[in-house]
Hints:
Blueprint: H1 3-16, H2 20-53, H3 59-69, H4 74-85, H5 100-124, H6 129-136, H7 141-151, H8 153-169, H9 172-178, H10 188-197, H11 201-228
Amino acid sequence: xxxxxSIMLDAIRLLLSGDAELWAIIAVxxxxxxxxxxxxxxxxxxxxxxxxxxxxxxxRLLISIFNTLLAVPAVVxxxxxxxxxxxxxxxxxxxxxxxxxxxxxxxxxxxxPILVAMGHAAFQAIDKRAWETARTLGASPTLALYTVMREAxxxxxxxxxxxxxxxxxxxxxxxxLGGNILHYTRNIPTAIALETSKGEFSQGIxxxxxxxxxxxxxxxSLQYFQGKGHITN
Length: 233
């Protein structure tokens, strides 16, 4: 048996054995990233809807800004929040640096432009008469918005899955804001970076398998929901 096969088998054994340290790292990743995406969804989708359905000065500029923010590296977001939350920064008194809360802020900032840009595209793909018709029939703004979101649900799901996949796999912001503290801020990507730098590949591959499984699950779920929305003869 060659070394690569042995490492892969060790990685699988780690996952199946319920290794406490490994699963603590996985738990931190899902906890932080889920909190970040839940914080981002309401304001991001509200902005996406406004950009798609409202007409106001600066609208095109805002769309361009959010599209540009998609290309900002995670490490730049991490550095920005590091400067803001450090002891010398304007929010240093909050003492958030090297905490899960700081990681949530960084990941929320990363997911926000993805949700806005892709949400805007999803809303724009829907006929505006859906909103107008709902309002004409007496629906409240909340109910009319629900109607539009239901029509755009596949595009919005794609935005949600893309944003979640981006933040749970990013390493730059999490490393800078969380400090990679064992049992507290060490998540999947920072643990992979640490373990591979030490030559300990089994745990890194095990955690990589979790990310691959997550990506597959998200894509399969999206395909399933899209398939449920089609009418077949």
